[in-house]
């Protein structure tokens, strides 16, 4: 994998995938702090556009930084800017998934003029101070009632909401992140422990990582088109919250995909690629 240097000297890796003559789409993984391998080629998006998938510091093939505090989301913005410069891009198409979208939003707030287009895929809304109420999360989850894993997942979510969750609870709720809890979803989920830096994940969202009011105000300067893509089965970001998120940008638009949850490129690859490739074109 190609390596470039972050401003603090940490060696960061990125994976080039796909084809096409246009500059690559820079992709930021979520997790938080999960290696970019889980994104794959984003359901075939790589067949439409080249992808530059970043391994955030301390994940995948990227080096562990000397200062663990640099794992915090806002402190990784300059890593993204360093990758833009390394790729020789005047402006970049930027895609962030889940917690990676938080980093993409912080980048947009700091460097609005460096964006060509911004795609936020099932983003965490916490970076802009939006919230999906627990009652609404329960309503979304209830659409899965009848699945053999549902009762265990619903009970586990109550522990998560009460902030008393154990590792067993997080494992039990895993099927909720997928539109279909099939063999492909099992395989995708099983890879997570080996891809995620747990220490870094706890720091990524720590105090000071987000300044919602400051960020919301700064997003008014983002002239680039912005896509906020939500899944109707996603209990992290509902279509309604996605609409509110998109309205924070002068040229934001929300798209809701039916039958998909938190990993839309796995649940409906054709629909996902059509929506995102069309937006980036």
CATH superfamily: Alpha/Beta hydrolase fold, catalytic domain
The figure for the number of domains is: 1
Tally of individual helices:
12
Fraction of residues in helix: 25-40%
CATH architecture classification? 3-Layer(aba) Sandwich
Tell me the distance between the termini: 26 Å
Order of helices and strands: EEEEHEHEHHHHHHHEHEHH
Determine the structural class based on helices, strands and strand pairing. Answer: alpha/beta
Structural write-up:
The protein is of the alpha/beta class and 281 residues long. It has one domain: Rossmann fold, CATH 3.40.50.1820. The protein contains twelve helices and eight strands. It has helices spanning 77-87, 99-110, 134-142, 150-161, 167-173, 183-190, 192-195, 198-204, 212-218, 239-246, 264-267, 269-280, and strands spanning 3-5, 11-17, 25-28, 51-54, 92-97, 115-121, 226-231, 252-257. Strands 1-2-4-3-5-6-7-8 form an eight-stranded mixed β-sheet, sandwiched between helices. The chain is globular. The relative contact order is 0.16. The model has no long low-confidence stretch (mean pLDDT 97).
Structure in a nutshell:
With about 280 residues, the chain is an alpha/beta fold. The protein has helices at about 75-85, 100-110, 135-140, 150-160, 165-175, 185-190, 190-195, 200-205, 210-220, 240-245, 265, 270-280, and strands at about 5, 10-15, 25-30, 50-55, 90-95, 115-120, 225-230, 250-255.
What is the fold's blueprint, element by element?
Layout: E1 3-5, E2 11-17, E3 25-28, E4 51-54, H1 77-87, E5 92-97, H2 99-110, E6 115-121, H3 134-142, H4 150-161, H5 167-173, H6 183-190, H7 192-195, H8 198-204, H9 212-218, E7 226-231, H10 239-246, E8 252-257, H11 264-267, H12 269-280
Parallel strand pairs: 3-4, 3-5, 5-6, 6-7, 7-8
Antiparallel strand pairs: 1-2, 2-4
Helix pairs in contact: 1-2, 2-9, 4-5
């Amino acid at each position: 994998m190609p390596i470039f240097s972050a401003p603090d000297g940490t060696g960061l890796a990125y994976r080039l995938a796909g084809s096409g003559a246009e500059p690559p789409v820079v992709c930021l993984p979520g997790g938080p702090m999960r290696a970019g391998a889980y994104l794959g080629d984003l359901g075939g998006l790589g067949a439409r556009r080249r992808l530059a998938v970043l391994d955030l510091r301390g994940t995948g093939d990227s080096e562990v930084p000397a200062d663990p505090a640099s794992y915090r989301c806002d402190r990784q913005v300059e890593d993204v800017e360093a990758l833009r410069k390394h790729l020789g891009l005047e402006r970049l198409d930027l895609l962030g998934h889940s917690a990676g979208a938080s980093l993409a939003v912080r980048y947009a707030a700091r460097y609005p003029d460096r964006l060509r287009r911004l795609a936020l895929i099932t983003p965490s809304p916490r970076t802009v101070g939006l919230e999906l109420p627990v009652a609404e999360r329960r309503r979304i989850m209830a659409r899965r009632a009848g699945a053999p894993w549902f009762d265990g997942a619903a009970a586990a979510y109550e522990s998560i909401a009460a902030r008393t969750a154990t590792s067993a609870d997080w494992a039990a709720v895993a099927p909720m992140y997928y539109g279909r809890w099939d063999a492909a979803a099992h395989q995708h989920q099983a890879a997570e422990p080996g891809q995620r830096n747990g220490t870094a994940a706890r720091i990524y969202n720590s105090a000071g990582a987000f300044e919602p009011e400051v960020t919301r105000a700064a997003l008014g300067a983002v002239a680039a088109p912005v896509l906020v893509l939500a899944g109707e089965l996603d209990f992290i970001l509902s279509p309604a919250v996605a609409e509110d998120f998109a309205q924070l940008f002068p040229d934001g638009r929300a798209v809701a995909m039916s039958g998909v949850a938190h990993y839309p490129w796995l649940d409906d690859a054709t629909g996902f690629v059509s929506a995102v490739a069309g937006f980036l074109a």
